[in-house]
Amino acid sequence: MPAAPFPDLTRPGTLVIGTRHADGPDRQRALVEAESGALATPPPGLAAVSWFLSTDGETVLTLAQWDDDTAVPLAGPPRYRLDRSLAEEHETRVPGCLITAAFDVDGPERQRHFTDAVIAAQPREGGHPGAVSAHFLHSVDGSRVLLYTEWTSAEAHQEAAEAGDHDKGHELFSGTPGVRLTHGGRFHLRHALRWGPAR
Q1: In whole angstroms, what separates CA 14 from the centre of its chain?
Q2: Which residues pair with 65 in a beta bridge?
Q3: Per-residue confidence at 47, pLDDT binned at 50, 70, 90?
Q4: Separation between Cα atoms, residue 60 and residue 21, nearest integer Å
Q5: Where is the region Disordered (predicted)?
Q6: N vs C: which end of the chain shows fewer Cβ within 10 Å?
Q7: CB 16 within 8 A of CB 73
């Protein structure tokens, strides 16, 4: 499959993000091929879908971007909206790796408090040179926060972790009342489809 750009999370709309166990790299790729092939005629309101494969070969993450909120299926994976993003104003580096951390939280106030605390903990003089951007996604029902971070490579993220760059963030992840880390992952983009404006 040809290379595709990472999704633009700053575009207006609703994000539907889900993960599934894939039982190995071959199954990961087969899931993506089957799902992308079934979207030859996408439903109205669906603007783009991106599929990511976890580097451990066990998970597929699907990110669907909907322009028309009324068309988003009520059943299925959680629905998110972008709360805030951190990125350099004229960022030109191309992401090569997605790192996620998902949290259950005790309501919308906790969503806001936790996001504020994580942003306040970021280094003022810029972070690791491999960190491209960070996006804070809040579930529409107020029960979740998804930290979606783009890196130049998995190696850059590992280097930052080994250097202790994430220690302050991990303290917040484990020590903030009303916030519970549920899962996270390291992913590479496998495939993406775009359809432009809502039909």
Answers
A1: 13
A2: 15, 48
A3: very high
A4: 7
A5: 1-24, 158-177
A6: N
A7: yes
Give the three-state DSSP class for 191: strand
Q: Please list, in sequence order, all residues whose beta carbon lies within 8 angstroms of the beta carbon of residue 85, skipping any fewer than 6 positions away.
A: 9, 10, 133, 134, 135, 136
HSE, side-chain direction, 13 A CA sphere, residue 108: 5
Residue 92 confidence (pLDDT): 80
- The string of pLDDT tens digits covering residues 149-165 is 999 999 998 888 888 76
Q: Report residue 52 as tokens.
A: 């990511």
Amino acid identity of 139?
S
Res 146 pLDDT > 90? yes
Select from 84, 106, 124 the least CA-distant residue to 176. Answer: 106
**Concatenated DSSP letters of 47-83:** EEEEEEEETTSSEEEEEEEES-GGGS-SSSSPEEEEE
Please tell me what DSSP assigns to residue 12: S
**Could you give phi then psi for residue 160, rounded to 5 degrees?**
-65, -40
Tell the residue number behind the tokens 């994976």, with chain if given: 77
pLDDT at residue 196 is higher than 70: no
d(CA 46, CA 67) in angstroms, rounded, equals 6
